[in-house]
Write a structure and sequence with these properties.
It contains six helices and nine strands, in the order βαβαβαβαβαββαββ. It is an alpha/beta fold. The structure holds 5-O-phosphono-beta-D-ribofuranosylamine (GRF). The site of 5-O-phosphono-beta-D-ribofuranosylamine has 12 residues, from helix 1, strand 5 and helix 6.
């Protein structure tokens, strides 16, 4: 990984963005957040970024004729800011080929389950419906398949009797906020490689 400049992609409230901002400011993550981009202009995450003097851009996917057009523009924007690692933080869109090609093994996502269990939306509800006793957090590199790239780091969260999707999500989120900056630091450290579908660090 050459550049420690992060581009963070968001769609909503941006609590994971906040965790990254806090880790950088607190000296726990040696990185700079170069730009935050939201596909939803009203995302609260944009306000969080601006409040910390970080460039925040709304790039509305509805203004683009195709997914590839949108992803090409995202890639151009991130590239123009010297971004070395793209962090998805509640970005509610599939990442397409133009963006994957522009940032090979350099796009990371945080997901609220122990993948490969419960990919996609409503992961906490899926976990409760299945009746698992343990769920958690997965930070993974992004590839063509949904929530299926090499796993960088995982943390477990116990499912408690009486949990609702909301109560489980709340406890998982606390672990996300710890795990995501840690995983980003690991990736920026560069002491890793991909073997098959495994992420190996040393
Ligand atoms: C988090 O649960 C994250 O794992 C998932 O979407 C949620 C985003 O939350 N991908 P926030 O916008 O970071 O608060």
């Amino acid at each position: 990984m050459t550049s420690r400049r992060l581009g963070v992609l968001v769609s909503g409230r941006g609590s994971n963005l906040q965790a990254l901002i806090d880790a950088v400011r607190g000296g726990r993550l040696e990185a700079e957040i170069a730009i935050v981009v939201s596909n939803r202009p009203a995302a609260y995450a944009l306000e969080r970024a601006r409040a910390h003097g970080i460039e925040a851009v709304a790039l509305d996917h509805r203004q683009y004729a195709s997914r590839d057009d949108y992803d090409r523009e995202l890639a151009r924007l991130l590239g123009s800011r010297g971004v070395g690692l793209v962090c998805l933080a509640g970005f509610m869109r599939l990442v397409g080929q133009p963006l994957l090609d522009a940032f090979p093994d350099a796009i990371v996502n945080v997901h609220p389950s122990l993948l490969p269990a419960f990919p996609g939306i409503d992961a906490q509800r899926q976990a409760l419906d299945w009746g698992v006793k343990v769920s958690g957090v997965t930070v993974h590199l992004v590839n063509r398949e949904l929530d299926a790239g090499p796993i960088v780091l995982q943390r477990t969260v116990a499912v408690e009797p009486g949990d609702t999707p909301e109560s489980l999500a709340e406890r998982i989120l606390i672990e996300e906020h710890r795990a995501y900056p840690e995983a980003v630091g690991l990736l920026l450290g560069g002491r890793w490689r991909i073997e098959g579908r495994r992420f190996v660090s040393w």
